[in-house]
Amino acid sequence: MTSSSSIRQAREALGKRLREIRKDSGLTARELAARAGWHESKCSRIENGRTGPSDDDLRVWTLHCGTEGQTADLIATARNIDGAYVEWRRMERSGLRRAQESVLPLWERTRHFRAYSSWLIPGPLQTRAYIEALLRAIRDRRALPDDLEEAVQVRVDKQRILHEGPGRFAVILEESALRHQIGGPATMAGQLGHLLSLATLPNVSLGVIPLNADRTALWPVEDFWIFDEAQVNVELVAAFLTVTQPHEISMYAHTFAGLAELAVYGAPARNLITAAIDSFG
Asked: This protein's superkingdom (predicted)?
């Protein structure tokens, strides 16, 4: 499911709920629009998910339908939909540091982390040199304000959650993530050596899917993080996607389990990492 279709379905579900509230109140869409001072087509657009209601729209809706006790819940639902798909240019308009800091509360309250990546080493497992090369490239590509050093430090500091927190980390990498060069051969060799060290931590499970694995049943998918059973984050080309609907989280959890079955662990995984280190000279 694409991000746009997921958000559309959520808006349609909210619209259906609002239609039921209106009908239970005995009002027609035209009567509600007249009482609210709206164009008569506005109710239809909201109920069919074509227009997202504002906070004031929802307050007016529940006021005239006599369901003001539902206002807060409806506003929270609508805000979650609006926050599900956030463009990078909006998140990073003041620089990369803010984008790094914005996820800290989520990371601090999560106890079970699951990550899948096909092209890079995930953030908590990155070295400072790898982080700097990665964020510098993002800064330059997106022409962002230069707060590189501050952003790097925020990401480095966040790694205390891996070393000091109570969380468990299950990480699945495609072997290709070990081979994609970020920051040059020396940076990659250091990064992969660091990965070998982290794989020995008792709270870290590291699996690598070999390039020659049979992918008939499950091929590589978009990179994603699962935070407990509460949320999934996906980094897209243009935006940052947050998934909170239980059935979608379940789909990602099921996919992660399938990918985990394809991975190798322990000595076989270390052999793949060591081979990648050797390839960088």
From this structure: Bacteria
